[in-house]
Amino acid sequence: MNSIRPLAAALLLAGLVATPAWAASSASSASSEASSTSVGSLSTSVEGSSQASSGDKKVAEGEYRVIQVAASEQQPGKLRVLLRGTEAAQGEFVLVLPASTAEQARLAPGSIVAARHQAYGLQFAAGQPRAPFYLVLDDAWYRELQTRPVTL
Q1: How many CB atoms lie within 10 A of CB 135?
Q2: What are the start-end ranges of the H helices in the chain?
Q3: Would you say the C-alpha torsion 30, 35, 40, 45 has a positive or negative sign?
Q4: Could you give the 3-state DSSP secondary structure of residue 143?
């Protein structure tokens, strides 16, 4: 009986994808509101350290300590979180994310954030036990997820 649930969920999702564009828009916003994990793109969510001359957006897998949390002047409703590597992860970078996401993850100076590489990009997790709160997609993946109007 438990094996029927995943099949039913997959069929329901397939049905939502096959509905008209206006219905897909509603389903998309409903699913994103229900999720506790927010999504951003690499080009807009990760900034190289001010100490890095290259502006490198590479993030090593490992744990980072939150050094500073500040409002983004250029992007209202977003926060800039300065992260510095602990033992395994080296360097520092700025993670730009929605203020509501940072608040939900309880990001504050001194807290620890784990960065994990995934096929789609990066997963950031916080708390004990570590729970994902922000997914940073490689730009190509992010573009594929963008909603586009469909004309029939």
Answers
A1: 19
A2: 4-17, 21-34, 42-45, 99-104, 139-145
A3: positive
A4: helix
Structure tokens at 12: 């329901």
Among 114, 117, 108, 57, smallest CA distance to 79 is for 108
Q: What is the model's pLDDT at position 144?
A: 67
Beta bridge partners of 78: 98
**pTM recorded for the entire structure:** 0.65
67/147 Cα distance (integer angstroms): 35
Q: How confident is the model at residue 87 (pLDDT cuts 50, 70, 90)?
A: confident
| Per-residue pLDDT, 21 | 37
Strands (E) located in 1-152: 38-41, 46-48, 62-71, 78-85, 92-98, 112-118, 121-126, 131-137
Nearest to 12, CA basis, from 22, 23, 1: 23
Is the torsion defined by CA of 26, 148, 8, 118 positive or negative?
Answer: negative
